[in-house]
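Why do we care about 3D structure at all? Because function follows from shape, and shape follows, mostly, from sequence. That is the central idea of this module. The next example makes it concrete: a single protein chain, its amino acid sequence, and then its structure expressed as tokens.
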Amino acid sequence: QVQLVESGGGLVQAGGSLRLSCRASVSFFSINAMGWYRQAPGKARELVAAITNGGNTNYADSVKGRFTISRDNAKNTVYLQMNSLKPEDTAVYYCYAKVVTRTDYWGKGTLVTVSS
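And the structure:
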């Protein structure tokens, strides 16, 4: 029912920046929270950042001060601005949305590769 369209992944040098985008097919009025998870090779999927409908944000300790999550309500789009990227940030990044019924939806993932 809810489609999440991700973009912005790619290859970047260490210290560089990328911005990920995730557009939802429904209004933020129907969404309690959106955010990003990532899964690195051989690692479990982990929460990177999330933003609630009320504007509260949460970040993994490893990205605090470097990544910023934001949203454009008119476009139903959430962004992840990633600065000072490190090789250990290399992962597939997945957009997610939790709707008001508490059902979870996931994007297909976008690969971020950070070279040394």
